[in-house]
Design a protein that fits this description.
The protein is mostly beta strands. The chain contains two helices and seven strands. The chain has one domain.
Amino acid sequence: MAELKIVVSEKEKSYARTVADAQVSSLLGRRIGETVGGDALGFPGYTLKITGGSDKSGFPLRGDLPGARETRILTGEGMGFHPARHGMRKRRTFRGNTVSEDTVQVNMVVEAKGPKPIAELLTTA
């Protein structure tokens, strides 16, 4: 199976961890905005919310695109495009909001803390 890099943000700090196999399967099929139990990812007692990510080609996951497909959309100001002039639009490639086997990185934020700090969990793992 595939490897996946998860980035967990807690206030001003972010922590990265590479997960594989069984831990990846707990994320497959999840969408941006869903909460995940941290027990399956090595963060016991934590609740994590998926906020974004990127695929194998470097395209970002976009929350308003259903599924896991790659698509090109015409976008104005917002995620993935910052126009040089007012009213400028451009066609950009994005990946849907569902975590799939093509996903390489998943960004998460802490919803509920566990008994141990994340930094301590990463040093023991």
